[in-house]
Automatic annotation (TrEMBL):
The organism's place on the tree of life at top rank: Bacteria
GO BP, one annotated term: DNA-templated transcription initiation
Gene3D superfamilies: 1.10.1740.10, Winged helix-like DNA-binding domain superfamily/Winged helix DNA-binding domain
Gene source species: Catalinimonas alkaloidigena
Residue ranges constituting the RNA polymerase sigma factor 70 region 4 type domain according to the UniProt record: 103-154
Domain named RNA polymerase sigma-70 region: residues: 7-67
Quaternary structure annotation from Swiss-Prot or TrEMBL: Interacts transiently with the RNA polymerase catalytic core formed by RpoA, RpoB, RpoC and RpoZ (2 alpha, 1 beta, 1 beta' and 1 omega subunit) to form the RNA polymerase holoenzyme that can initiate transcription.
Stated name of the protein: RNA polymerase sigma-70 factor, ECF subfamily
Family annotation (SUPFAM superfamilies): NTF2-like, Sigma2 domain of RNA polymerase sigma factors, Sigma3 and sigma4 domains of RNA polymerase sigma factors
Residues in the signal sequence: none
Entry's Gene Ontology molecular function annotations: DNA binding; sigma factor activity
Transmembrane regions: none
């Protein structure tokens, strides 16, 4: 029971590790369930460094599970986007530890499972190479190489999220331009390399392929506005940043929009419409 008690103590942190490696809430919960089961079956003698011991268990279980998930995602209908996560309360130091932006999570899909684990452990939790090497049964030199390759592949570095007030102001201007069908005003809010990714999972309508380029993205959103989809959303806090949630007539979450800014312009739109990935946001609209 000693290790199981330590698991309970570190559970929010361990969930963050699993979630950022896997990109799915329920998959992370399943990994933690496997780990706690192993803890209950473990000898009762105290572990000298329980947090490190548990991190090793969670990281390796997550790597193994991600190998299976990547095969499933390869045949996913349309673009696969990470499942959004309601940001834990800021007052909970352990729970809020290690939150990576949604843009980074999306980019992590380009990595191998081991590259992703090394990136998460280093960039989100600042673990030393020696410790990571011992957990992943490799060398410090290989960990450094894995991280170097990961950074090169994703070309996105973890950054502080845009201030909520500034992002909401920009989105109000964006929605106004959409409602007015003002393409030129809309283009001024978009980065020249803007891209839009949409995930419907084959269950609801969504763009199957990414929409790339300022004018293409602008025209895409003007088309949505003409269909009456430029209403005012609910502001939610997901993945450590401000998100914009649209609800159906019955109040259930229908569309989550997350954006990434660069130089005060929108560089990435992430539109999550797969209803299975929005269930976790129900509490945000029923408070």
């Amino acid at each position: 029971m000693v290790l199981a008690e330590e698991f309970t103590r570190y559970r929010p942190y361990l969930f963050a590790v699993a979630y950022h490696i896997l990109g799915e809430v329920q998959e992370a919960e399943d990994v933690l369930q496997d780990v706690v089961t192993a803890c209950l079956e473990a000898p009762t003698k105290p572990i000298q460094h329980p947090k490190a011991y548990l991190t090793r268990m969670v990281a390796n279980q997550s790597i193994d599970r991600l190998k299976v998930l990547k095969k499933q995602r390869a045949v996913y209908t349309g673009t696969w986007l990470p499942e959004p996560l309601i940001t834990p309360e800021r007052s909970d130091g352990i729970a809020s530890e290690g939150i990576l932006s949604y843009e980074v999570l999306h980019a992590l899909e380009n990595l191998t499972p081991t590259e992703r684990a090394v990136f998460v452990l280093r960039e989100a939790f600042d673990y030393p190479y020696r410790e990571m090497a011992s957990w992943l049964n490799t060398t410090e030199a290989n960990c450094r190489q894995l991280l170097r390759r990961a950074r090169q592949k994703i070309a996105v570095r973890p950054t502080a999220p845009a201030p909520s007030s500034g992002l909401e102001t920009l989105m109000r201007a964006f929605l106004h331009a959409c409602q007015e069908q003002n393409l030129e005003a809309l283009l001024q809010l978009l980065h020249e390399d803007v891209a839009m990714y949409s995930d419907g999972g084959g269950k609801v309508s969504a763009a199957v392929h990414p929409v790339l380029g300022r004018r293409s993205v602008g025209k895409f959103f003007l088309g949505l506005a003409r269909k009456g989809l430029a209403t005012i959303p609910v502001v939610v806090d997901v993945n450590g940043q401000t998100g914009f949630l649209y609800t159906a007539a019955d109040g259930t979450p229908a569309t989550l929009v997350l954006v990434a800014l660069e130089h005060h312009a929108v560089k990435r739109f992430f539109i999550v419409r797969n209803p299975d990935k929005l269930k976790i946001l129900l509490q945000s609209v029923t408070k």
